[in-house]
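[step 3/7] fold_predict: job queued, chain A
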Amino acid sequence: MPQVTSADGTAIGYETHGSGPVVIFVAGAIQYRAVDEDSPRIAALLADRFTVVLYDRRGRGESGNTEPYAVTREIEDIEALIDALGGTAMLYAMSSGAVLAIDAAAALPQKITRLVCYEPPINAAQSRDEALADLAEMERFKAAGDGGSALTAFMRYTGASEDDVNGFKSSPAWPPFAAAGTTIAHDYRVLAEATKGDMTARWRGVAQPVLVVNGDASFPFMAAAADSAADALPNGQRKTLAGQRHDPAVEAIAPVIAQFCA
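[step 4/7] structure written:
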């Protein structure tokens, strides 16, 4: 698999599909190529008109994880991909990756031209102190190298039952997901830094068009989360997909990306 080298020397693994303007997919928590079945299918539907880039965020799959972690390092990873693939790109980003993508657009206004953001999980009911406490817990799991406990805590936080957690742990899918569990701390830091302050001030330089999408069958707070993200952006736009959850159907999201990025 090809790799690019980020500014701090970290190798970032990626792959491309199709040809045309570049669209980089930015994954959410614990999502990476070895476990992600949907992104290649979306890429296949877009490959006739775009170069779709799938990459492993740092610490996952075939990407390195030079410490100490900072959100800026992940933005540099995206920039390294853009520079290697022509100098400009659009982004399609999922969940916590959507918040990272907006931060990247603020930092790289000449290199990122537009964004589709699916369900940035901006939880207004969670206080800054609560967010920082959750981040501290994930940092402890990361320091101990305990991806399994991090993933267990994350599943419980997102509403999974004990039966769901125990069933997943006993399945063959658990080890590759748990392998990325320590990087949940990265996503918690992305969210804490970006969404527990003044988002409008943080993102006022994002002049690029940004489409913020939610599914009406997703978590109850996601519609308000998408509204708040779009409202914080100078050129934010909104769309709701009927019948879609936090993991949208390939056939539902691919046309949205294609239309907005055309």
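[step 5/7] annotate
The chain is about 45% helix and 15% strand.
The chain has a mean pLDDT of 97.
exit 0
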